[in-house]
Amino acid sequence: MDLTLATRELDSATVVAVGGEIDVYTAPKLRDKITELVSRGHYDIVVDLEAVEFLDSTGLGVLVGGLKKVRAHDGMLRLVCTQERLLKIFRITGLAKVFDIHASAEGAAAG
After folding, report:
1. Sign of the dihedral defined by the CA atoms of residues 71, 74, 80, 83, in that order
2. Most exposed among 21, 27, 47, 79, judged by the fewest C-beta atoms under 10 Å?
């Protein structure tokens, strides 16, 4: 399965809606998108994972790397995720304490 990315502005945040699978093959596409946004001055990023069907350690690494990139500019990277199977991954890895995880893009954009 491929990875789809759709970007939109919401309040002061840039929302990246991700669909499909984030794995060793597709994660570089998401990493490149986050890098591109940061290089263009977007430091408040919301990654919407609602349409993600699979997430592996490579994908987690990309999200952590994106968080580091925006934090270097005093920005934030928030996640939208309500899928229990993905939330479980964040809890098991301890990343649920690292990321702000919200139920909607609107909630995430509001902080």
Report:
1. positive
2. 21
Each residue's pLDDT, cut to its tens digit, for the chain (111 residues) gives: 799 999 999 999 999 999 999 999 999 999 999 999 999 999 999 999 999 999 999 999 999 999 999 999 999 999 999 999 999 999 999 999 999 999 999 999 998
Tell me how far CA of residue 40 lies from CA of 3, 14, 28, 35, 63, in angstroms: 22, 11, 18, 9, 18
Q: Cα(14)–Cα(10) distance, rounded to whole angstroms? A: 6
Region label for 45, one of left (φ > 0), alpha (ψ between -120 and 50) or beta (otherwise): beta
